[in-house]
Amino acid sequence: MKSSQSYFKDCDFSSIKNSLVILDIDGTIVPHNGTEVLPDELNQINFLKENNNRIVIVSNNVDQRRNESIAQALDVECIETGYRKPDVRAIGKLVAQYSSQSLFVIGDKMLTDGLFAKKLGGVFWGVENLRSKEDSLGVRIFYFIDRMSQKIFY
Ligand SMILES: [Mg+2]
Fold first, then answer.
1. How far is the CA of 99 from the centre of ligand 1 (A)?
2. Is 8-153 assigned to CATH 3.40.50.300?
3. Most CB atoms within 10 A, among 2, 63, 127, 138?
4. Residues near ligand 1 ion, CB 5 Å cutoff
5. What would the pLDDT profile of 17-54 be if each residue is shown by its tens digit?
């Protein structure tokens, strides 16, 4: 795991090439429940695409319409299975085609994205969570618990 914890927009993804990139939405490319991806995040996604990566969105957000519309705006795949990260069934059979060196999970939460990467045998690229003033108390508490868990895991 990268421990620098930069925001997604500030990460140097130049080492990710020819890989499967499983991308989180909430707290990673938009604030929780966000609907609009801003140009900085969009540029990063285009950069990942230019390096021949296959980008697949896997979100635990129950608002599938929102997930799909973001995926569509980014022109990337979106997998909806009814399973939630870190359950490996959330990605289906896709991973079998990729080696552990070419499978990345980019996300803001250790307890979902981090464990997901570990179970899939891939690399977790943790990013700083993108927050909003509108984040609910529940969302804030989850971020807090997740940060505590990172201290325990690493
Ligand atoms: Mg997230």
1. 24
2. no
3. 127
4. 24, 26-27, 108-109
5. 999 999 999 999 999 999 999 999 999 999 999 999 99
> Using an 8 Å Cβ cutoff, are 28 and 59 in contact?
no
Q: How far is the CA of 64 from the centre of ligand 1 (A)?
A: 15
Instruction: Express each pLDDT in 126-147 by its tens digit.
Output: 999 999 888 999 999 988 888 8
Could you say which DSSP state residue 97 is in? G
| 97 C-alpha to ligand 1 centroid (Å) | 25
* pTM of the full structure: 0.92
- Residues 21/106, Cβ–Cβ less than 8 Å: yes
> CA 134 to CA 18: how far, in whole Å?
37
Sorted by where each begins, the domain ranges of the chain are 8-153
Q: Is the pLDDT of residue 3 over 90?
A: no
